[in-house]
Amino acid sequence: MTDSNAETRVLRTALGPLLRRWAAALADGCVPDRCVLCLAPAAMGICADCAEDLVVPASPCPTCAQPLPAAGLCPSCQRAAPAFDAAWAPLAYAWPLDRLLLSYKAGGRPQLARPLAGLFMRYLDPAATRAVDRVIPVPLHDGRLARRGFNQAERLARGLCRARGLELDTRSARRVLATPSQQGLGRSARRANLRKAFRVDADLSGLRVLLVDDVMTTGTTLEMLAREVRRAGAIWVGAAALARA
């Protein structure tokens, strides 16, 4: 291999993550004027007709947001309360939202950030952000962040904070372990996978903290992060996600 080829490879390796972040940031600042689902005119990227196809859970558990057939606590929360005090996930992880989220995270479509953040702000119960001192998005490990170019939870949290006048905190929590994907794992396997994955070094004594993620499946990710936030002194911890599986 020639010196020029070696230098090109080194430069591509070094600049690749940076370029992905620039592309994501540029796309995040663009507001599409067409619906990302049907291409009809839409001010915030999703038209009214397609928004009607979104599934809104009728009776979510107030503690973990698990969809239920009737109002009340789910059996899991009756047996043992999670580390967070309350959870909100205004939409179900079902078509067409599941396709949008997959395209956003894994399909190289960072331009979906604004429409998805718009849905989060539109459907999230105001109670979720009432009297909240800080909003902490679920952090990504540095390696995954470099590959993807953006943290999808942070984009949702940033839009929410901007709209509701909240303080975004992206420094207090870190993901210190590069855990394998959670997809396809059950609750116990997810718990083992995420043990000691998060670290909170800041002093959160006396604060009310809202954690934000894009999708809540079993709640294990938010549960493990909530434990660390409580150890840091938070007196109340809420969890919010755009969708609940």
Quick structural summary:
This protein is 39% helix and 15% strand. It is an alpha/beta fold.
Written overview of the protein:
This protein has 245 residues and is an alpha/beta fold. It contains nine helices and nine strands. It has helices spanning 3-28, 48-51, 75-79, 97-106, 113-123, 142-148, 152-164, 187-194, 220-231, and strands at residues 59-60, 67-68, 86-88, 91-92, 134-137, 173-175, 198-200, 208-216, 236-244. The strands form three sheets. Strands 3, 4, 5, 8 and 9 form a five-stranded parallel sheet that branches. Helix 9 links the parallel strand 8 (208-216) and strand 9 (236-244). It is globular, with a radius of gyration of 19 Å. Residues 10-29 have low confidence and may be disordered.
Q: Give helix and strand order, one letter per element, not per position.
A: HHEEHEEHHEHHEHEEHE
Give the uncertain stretches in residue-range form. Answer: 10-29
Oligomer: single chain
Give the DSSP E fraction (strand runs of 2 or more residues).
15-25%
List the main descriptive attributes of the protein structure presented here.
about 240 residues, alpha/beta, 5-stranded parallel sheet, two-stranded antiparallel sheet, 9 helices
Give the topology.
Layout: H1 3-28, H2 48-51, E1 59-60, E2 67-68, H3 75-79, E3 86-88, E4 91-92, H4 97-106, H5 113-123, E5 134-137, H6 142-148, H7 152-164, E6 173-175, H8 187-194, E7 198-200, E8 208-216, H9 220-231, E9 236-244
Parallel strand pairs: 3-9, 4-9, 5-8, 8-9
Antiparallel strand pairs: 1-2, 6-7
Helix pairs in contact: 1-6, 5-7
